Amino acid sequence: MSSFVIEGGRTLSGSIVPQGAKNEALQVLSAVLLTSEAVTVSNVPEILDIKNLIQLIKTMGVSVTRHAKGEYTFVADHVDARYIGSEEFVRSCAALRGSVMVVGPLLARFGRAFFPKPGGDKIGRRRVDTHIDGFIKLGANCEYEHSVRAYRLDSGDGLKGCYMLLDEASVTGTANIVMAATLAKGVTTIYNAACEPYVQQLCRLLVAMGAQIEGIGSNLLRITGVERLHGAEHTILPDMIEVGSFIGMAAINRSELTIKNVSWENLGIIPEAFRRLGVKLEQRGDDIFVPAQESYEIESFIDGSIMTLADAPWPGLTPDLLSVMLVVATQCKGSVLIHQKMFESRLFFVDKLIDMGAQIILCDPHRAVVIGHDHKIDLRGGRMTSPDIRAGIAMLLAAMSAKGVSEIDNIEQIDRGYEDIEGRLNALGAHIERKS
Q1: Among 49, 121, 320, 388, which one carries the catalytic annotation?
Q2: pTM > 0.85: yes or no
């Protein structure tokens, strides 16, 4: 297990480019399984979760060519039917949360797939009902096989289009069902579909591959199945979670920073959410400029009540940024209620922030009140362990702003979502050392 040793209290400056979007990459790299022709994808983030997914599809028999950093061509013309039905494959999928995305393509193209209980972050209950219910509505048979602890899906005479109203606007559920529906017979209508930019990007790739999809960007998708899909090229968006993390990093360190090529139109409410914490930022073309500020004052609502920041489906605030915003709030002026609706364990890391001197009241697994220090009291360096990707980056930002030296264990969790994070932040003036 590796760790980061962080010398806090350093001022940062310069510019940084966000990596490709992890959540989009997990979807579009799974979509290459829908065709036997070449699919070239650019701006692929070379992070642990993506490397593990690439290794998984290589083991399935997909040819993978790396042309340059972040640019790959995939050809799924010799997928090993024996392997994708084996216990070894199920075990490999169970260890990787993103592997759920290969189920829809495998079911659509090869007629069968295993759906193991997925791995990934330990952040509370993560339902997979939306995925499986959608596949069943498309005509798949589903049985639980105790021997491999996974659901076995079989398309029988082939998937058939239908109307479905999703029980929740699940991003991965929507993506999985859309991929399966592209090769189903007839028309599939999905209402209450997730409409995040990453789902839109997946749909655009599928259209480039020959799929017929209407309603992209809305919560009502209409997919007319086709007989086959062909090759295509695709470029992944910059990661909005990294963009938000860097805004938070500049703020909590009272530093001037330029974040390059952010795809502003795909950031949604993220810039405005930081403005509510008192963070000034400017749009400069497709860049974000965050000026250095001595103080950040949290807004109140019009009636004077305490500001609440809560996650919501797109175009609401992504839950992946609430941990970062909570850490930023510890050094703002004023108070804010952080309401993490989706996952019941993501706020438990605040105990470590309290040990560092933050004033936080954990109301319940979903809500925390943060009382900002306004930089009048520095956080103290400490020893902590990263429980998940997003808490890990939040802890790193806290340590960078703290007085003294901090150590973060289990940084493999951070590596799952952030590429060469210490190298990129050290180039801005941070002092982060990796220890094995």
Answers
A1: 121
A2: yes
